[in-house]
TrEMBL record:
Transmembrane intervals: none
Enzyme class: hydrolase
Organism per entry: Cardamine amara subsp. amara
Domain of life: Eukaryota
Pfam families tied to this protein: PIG-L
GO molecular function, one term: N-acetylglucosaminylphosphatidylinositol deacetylase activity
Family named by the database record: Belongs to the PIGL family.
UniProt-recorded name of the protein: N-acetylglucosaminylphosphatidylinositol deacetylase
């Protein structure tokens, strides 16, 4: 009998969470993220990711929110995800996912550099990352960078190197007034509690005013974007996208170099 009560309670919480997303979603401290203190026309934001599909699996709530607020979104993807020899396929899939997410294809850059190859045990040069990030920031007049935190959501070494590259760029360009935000890595319970995590995220933001919570008002679009990555769209990733809290909300924290 007890398990029935627990099951019903979980279903009620899950449904209530989805209702909050679809009918009452609000993102906390949006102005903190969006107000760059400069002219209103200056809205160039760059996501720095490691592999094709990172944008859909982890950052889609923030991408959806910024795209709906007329920001100029750029994505710098530092590898083709060629660990299984499907780099060219995954590049095409990323183009299709960006079309779904309303990121202009001319504002997507995918590198295939010998120093940035996908895979565990691959060490990416932080100095070279810094140089490339600096070139993109300068070329596109970027004022805000969004990337992984030091754990990189899953602990993937490529994700962590991307964070360190961004951090080094900020340290060596401190006079440029570039804002940078990191996607907060969550513990295993929060990571897989789906839309229910929006309540925990909101509570966390109240305790940590520096955090920004972006609730995904279009989770269906996130599923559609991830489905464009057909080479990766296997059963366990379908489960991941369904139960991952990163589909429903992003917690961002300001990087202080």
């Amino acid at each position: 009998m007890a398990w029935i009560v627990v099951s019903i309670s979980l279903i009620v919480i899950w449904v209530a969470s989805l209702c909050k997303i679809f009918f009452g979603a609000t993102s906390s401290s949006k102005s903190t993220l969006l107000d760059d203190g400069k002219a209103s026309h200056k809205k160039n934001v760059m996501f720095v990711i490691a592999h094709p599909d990172d944008e859909s699996m982890f950052f889609s709530p923030t991408i959806n929110y910024l795209a709906s607020n007329a920001y100029n979104l750029h994505i710098l993807c530092l590898s083709t995800g060629n660990a299984d020899g499907m780099g060219s396929i995954r590049k095409d899939e990323l183009h299709q996912a960006c079309a779904v997410l309303k990121v202009p294809l001319q504002q997507l850059k995918i590198l295939d550099h010998p120093s940035f190859q996908d895979g565990f045990g691959q060490v990416w040069s932080h100095d070279l990352l810094t140089k490339i990030i600096e070139e993109e920031v300068t070329n596109h007049d970027i004022h805000t960078i969004i990337t992984f935190d030091n754990h990189g959501v899953s602990g993937h070494c490529n994700h962590r190197d991307v964070h360190r590259g961004v951090l080094k760029f900020l340290q060596t360009n401190s006079g440029r007034n570039i804002k940078a935000w990191e996607l907060v890595s969550l513990n295993i319970f929060r990571k897989y509690c789906g839309p229910v995590d929006i309540w925990l995220s909101i509570l966390s933001a109240r305790k940590h005013p520096s955090e920004v919570i972006i609730i995904n008002e279009q989770p269906r679009k996130s599923f559609e974007a991830m489905a464009q990555h057909l080479s990766q769209w296997v059963w366990f990733r379908k489960l991941f996208v369904s139960f991952s809290s990163y589909t429903y909300a992003n917690t961002l924290n300001r990087i202080n170099p």
